[in-house]
Amino acid sequence: MNVDQQTQVLLQQMKQLESYLTDIGNRENMSMNAIVESRASVKATEILSDTEPKEILFPIGSGLLTKVGDEKAFFVNIGAGITVEKDKEEVKEFLNERIKDIEKSIETLSIQKKDMAQQYNSIRAALNNIVQGQQNVRQS
User: Fold this and answer.
1) Domains, the chain
2) Which residue would you say has higher pLDDT here, 118 or 72?
């Protein structure tokens, strides 16, 4: 493989890694937003459980609905359009487990991001070596 082909391959790899790094950054941001929303929902369950009864059903975030009435009930969207009723403690447990799962995902994404950044820097160094080699050949 000649120098031009090597350069093209390395540039292609850099572009692909840049794309992956951007995607991982976006997923990290979405995950962080989900954690913030879930924590706010935990707080909302506390506040709403102590409010005066009213017959109303409304979303409080993280796929949760609550009915504020004589009985405090929370409805959790567990996926695929399925919603189940849970009490305050069950909701808090569910949301805290969700937060733990998201935090684990963020850790995994962080490791992937670090590995890809190292690969990116290695490719960049290889490209710099190729460019330096070509400049040295031209100067000779």
Assistant:
1) 3-49+88-135 (1.10.287)
2) 118
